[in-house]
Amino acid sequence: MNESQSQFDQRLRRLDHKHKAMARGRESVMRPDGLIMTAPLAARSRGPIRPVVILIVALFLFKAILIVNVGEATYKQRVLELRHGNLIEHAGAVVMQLDPISDFIALQLRPYLR
Fold this sequence. Notes:
Blueprint: H1 2-23, E1 26-30, E2 36-40, H2 49-70, H3 72-83, H4 87-96, H5 100-113
Antiparallel strand pairs: 1-2
Helix pairs in contact: 2-3, 2-5, 3-4
């Protein structure tokens, strides 16, 4: 009796695991014999790629908006002033330095923000 109960519990755990996996998504495929099988979708990597890309795009957009609003010469002067500050200001100057991507985005935004 104890052996059959443990087998039953194992089957219940497998079904519960499969049910939770299918709640995240499932796909149905037809086997060569015509039987349709439903299986959970493979787990996708939930790495930090998307937030990092969004952060980088936001940084370039922020820099471009600053360039358009204060002007390129003033922007360069302010970044140069940051270079002569403490360690944090120097790191900010490295991040905020003028680059081709921000310059291109600023060029595209200039007609809309002026």
